[in-house]
Each structure stands twice: as C-alpha cells, then as structure tokens.
What we know:
The protein contains 4 helices and 40 strands. The chain is of the alpha/beta class. Strand 22 and strand 23 (194-196) form a beta hairpin. The termini are far apart.
Amino acid sequence: xxxxxxxxxxxxxxxxxxxxxxxxxxxxxxxxxxxxxxxxxxxxxxxxxxxxxxxxxxxxxxxxxxxxxxxxxxxxxxxxxxxxxxxxxxxxxxxxxxxxxxxxxxxxxxxxxxxxxxxxxxxxxxxxxxxxxxxxxxxxxxxxxxxxxxxxxxxxxxxxxxxxxxxxxxxxxxxxxxxxxxxxxxxxxxxxxxxxxxxxxxxxxxxxxxxxxxxxxxxxxxxxxxxxxxxxxxxxxxxxxxxxxxxxxxxxxxxxxxxxxxxxxxxxxxxxxxxxxxxxxxxxxxxxxxxxxxxxxxxxxxxxxxxxxxxxxxxxxxxxxxxxxxxxxxxxxxxxxxxxxx
Length: 342
C-alpha cells in the first residue's frame, strides 16, 4: 500500500512542507528511516535525526522550525505523537480489511453471521454460533458451539474459543489465546486421587477488550468468568475460573489470577503479579511487578512485594533489606559488647 504526502495530510488535517506527491509504503523510526518510509518527530531528544533521516515523510509538531536543510517532506500537525498513532490505526484498519470466507473452512449450517466478515482458511465455526458485522477471524481458529461474537471484533490466527463464550463489540483477540477452557477444579477422593469437578459455566467478554497473545481465560465452574468493558490484557496471562475483572483495568504479562478473585475498575497491574483465590481487589489499585497478593485490597492502594504491602513502606524497607548483613553484624557486635560489660 502506497500513500502520498497529500493523502496523509488529508487524513491528519496537517500542512505539507515539501513535495506533496512523494510516496511512502512503510513506517520507520526516525533514526532508521529509509526512502519510501514514513516517520515522526515528537521527542526533542530525537530532533538531530531529522536532518539525517532518509525517511521520505516526517510528521512533526506545527511548532517545529528547522535549523538546517531537510531532505524529508514534513507534515505539520498539532500533536505529532497523537497524529502518528491515528495513522497507525488507519494503517491497521486498511491492512486488516479482509473480507470473504476462505477454503478450506467449516461453518455449521446453524451458525449465523453479519455482513463484511472474513473467515480465514482452516477455521472451524460450530453450531448456533452468532457472529456480528465486520468481524475478522484469521486462519486456524476454532469457534465452539453457541459462541457469540459482536461487531467489529478481530480474532487473530490460532485462537481457540470454547463453547458458550460471549464476546462483545470492538474486541481484539491475539494469536494463541484460549478462552473458555475448563477451570482448574479437582477434589480428592478416599484413595488420595483427584476427581474432576465439571466446569459448566462460561466466559463473558464485554466491549473494547484487548487480549494479548497466548493468554488463557478459563470458564466458570458455575456462572461466568467476566472481563468487563475496556480491559486490556497483555500476553501470557492466566485468568482462572469465576474471576471478574472490572472495566478499564490493565494487566501486564505473566500475571496469574486464581479462581473467584474479583479485581476492581481502573486498576494497573504490573507483570508477573500473582493473585491468590477468593479475594477482592478494590478500584484504582496499582500493583508493582512481581508482587504477590494474598489478601483483599481496598480502593486506591499502591502495593509492592511478596507478600505485597504499601509501596511507600516497601521503598523505605528496601533500604534495610539491602543492608541486612551489615545491620546483623552491627547488632551482633553490640550484643557482644553488652555481654562483655556484664
């Protein structure tokens, strides 16, 4: 796909300084720009690169005034970073604008789907599935019986969505995600063996949820595992049965959430955080990476550590943690002096 500076300026409502007919077909960092690429300058630390970049077009703030000769064509906008992000969204929309049903694929006769959908090759769509308009399902996906997928949702290659799952509008589900697998439910019998507890619930994913690659979300034992509107999940996250995550919460990679834990709205959770089961996390909670959460947390707390405690207290305590051998040695010497005086 090729775009001229004139076309890009039209999308961004920007002003052109240079050749309006120059074409680009790829994106680049400003320091790595090559002929035919588009880049942007938003951070003043990178300003020196604009004089040497080989990128054909550079998006800049309207306040930018060059101090030396430029080879690149400029598109001046109010906010270069936001405009470049908008352009990335547009580029993705064009790139992902596939339509039609590829062969070989299987769609059950009882399944229904809206207009402008795309179903990639080797995809299986089960009985009574309901798929909305403008849904994109890339190759090698499995959509189980009675699944519902809302409008404008994208399901990337290799996703497995088990039966009874409900997915809202404008969701993005990245490759390797598994939604609706059985929760980890077993009970010991008199022989010391473990019998499986049937997992008869489902998963509900509301609108505008993004799910990163290789993340797994288990179905509920009874009822539903629920991911609320606007939640953003990174790659390789494990969400167990009957978990509920409140709207607009963001969770970084490799976090694990045990069964029946409830996480509130607008939380920010770092990578590799571990949650015990059957606890409640309040709204607006911030948890630093690699923390271990074994108790319920009230609204607006910021935590770190394993087990986690107040972020401010953790930072103060860390001063002593790293000096612990020296502190112990000093205490031992003091004890010796006291004993000697006695």
